[in-house]
Amino acid sequence: MDSENVDRRSDVHHADDFDVQAFIRSVWRRRLAVVAITGVVTLAALIYSLLLTPVFTAHVTILPQIRTDGSAALFGQVMGMTGLNLGGASASHEELYARILTSDRILDAAIARRWQDGDGEVSLYDAFDIETDSKEQTGAVSSYRLKGILRTDVISFSRDKLTGYMELRVSVPRDPSLAAELANYLIAQLEEYNQSFKRTKAAEQREFIADRLVEVKADLDLQEERRTGFIKTNRSYSTSPDLLQEYNRLSREVQATTSVWVELRKQLEIAKIDENKELISLDILDPATIPVKRSSPNRKKLTLIGLILGAALSVVWVVAREQVGTGT
Fold first, then answer.
1. Is the peptide bond before 297 cis (omega within 30 degrees of 0)?
2. pLDDT tens sequence across 154-169
3. Distance in angstroms between the alpha carbons of the first and the last residue of the chain
4. What distance in Å separates the CA atoms of residue 125 and residue 9, rounded to the nearest whole number?
5. Residue-by-residue DSSP string for 256-287
6. In this predicted model, what pLDDT tens digit does every residue of 28-59 receive, in sequence order?
């Protein structure tokens, strides 16, 4: 009885074992079909890669230099105006740049421009195959769609954590020259925005301090006149406790206002200096050049995937035929 159970387990074990040699013989017998299936799938993948629209990516490498003086406050104001609420400023520069570059202000200017290509001038609507209409509502929808494409598929920013270098990548279908032109335009707009924002905020700060300085100077002159008038009418104030107390009060007002006036004078000079400083200086290490090779599709990769997929399908087909042939 025990020997019968052992024989049965042995038979089941051998039945479940995968016979590699039998499988190889089966593949060899059906080698023409295997080659045909693999070849058809590989050819289909190659044709598919040829039908895909080629995309060209232009690169701009920059090295930002963030000042550690009063410009840091303006950097925070930029983040606030762009809607960013980031925990660590050192890790957010690329997010700030990307937010500025993909803002409506810069994208609308890029959309309104005419761009050069091999056949003449072209709009971004034409470059990305977006239909436009003369109606205002349809135009707004087209603009919204185009800006969505620019934000998600065209413009990207990254930073190398080791070197600190940042890279702007602009991907455009079919037209490598447009990719390079758009990338350089966006970097120029980023620098212009920084400088314009900085000059505006610094000018506003200088004007506020200058106006406040005039007000404080008028108060100081008035307080000094009061103290001088008190001394002229009370030359022996030092012998009277009440008069001495009044003189000390007037003197404290003059001293306090003088301290404010001196501090404002310092702040005014600093504001004048900051007005001629850069908020964020962008060192463009490598401007965008016309890409020679397409960035996608990767035809070799797609063809290799087709080859692997075709081989896998052919193996599955062989196994299925063998199972049907043996009735299992």
1. yes
2. 998 888 877 778 889 9
3. 29
4. 71
5. HHHHHHHHHHHHHHHHHHHTTS-SEEEEEEE-
6. 888 888 888 889 999 998 898 888 888 999 99
- Give burial (CB, 10 Å; 0-12/13-18/19+) of 37: buried
Query: What single DSSP character describes residue 174?
Result: S
Q: Tell me if residue 134 falls in helix, strand or coil.
A: coil
Count CB neighbours of 107 within 10 A. Answer: 21
What six digits make up the tokens of 236?
């022996």
Q: Which two tokens stand for residue 207?
A: 């004007």
Query: Could you give the dihedral angle defined by the CA atoms of residues 38, 42, 43 and 48, in that order, rounded to the nearest 10 degrees?
Result: 150
CATH of domain 54-200+281-296: 3.30.1890
The model's pTM: 0.60
Q: Considering just the CA atoms, what is the radius of gyration of the chain in Å?
A: 38
Please tell me what DSSP assigns to residue 244: H
Residue 70: pLDDT band (50, 70, 90) is: very low
Domain residue ranges of the chain, discontinuous segments joined by +: 2-49+300-326, 54-200+281-296, 206-274
Q: What is the rounded distance in angstroms from the CA atom of residue 254 to the CA atom of residue 226?
A: 10
Q: For domain 206-274, which CATH number applies: 1.10.3470, 3.90.550, 3.40.50, 1.10.287? A: 1.10.287
Per residue in 249-281, pLDDT (tens digit) is 999 999 999 999 999 999 888 888 777 664 556
